[in-house]
Design brief:
2 domains; mainly alpha; 127 residues
Amino acid sequence: MATATERWLWSAVFAILVGSVVFVLLRTEPVTRLAKNIWFNHFRSVLYGSCFAFGLVHTFSFRFTSLTAETLLLAPLLVFPQILSGFLLAFARMRLGMIWCIVLHTAHQATSMRNDLAPEVIRNFTD
């Protein structure tokens, strides 16, 4: 079994490889033309799809004992707050700009981390 550091390292290598391939593909003329066509003609579908994808990616944050059909069917309910966050961040992106979307996401993550770490920090100071 791989350690957490090894899993993280392989995930980073995989992300860099996928990002590089996507970058190279997006630089070619036919793919650029197709992406622009989809973006401008089907923007609403792209937006909704990316919001749902944003939420569903967070399914991997949970540790399931087994991956069953019931687990997959109930996964959208489990990550419903993240799906809503995706829509909120998309709204902020479209109305306020990318920087405000990043600021909102960072503030949300900082709040979540504070809530997760607060009991441990308090325990360390009281020992």
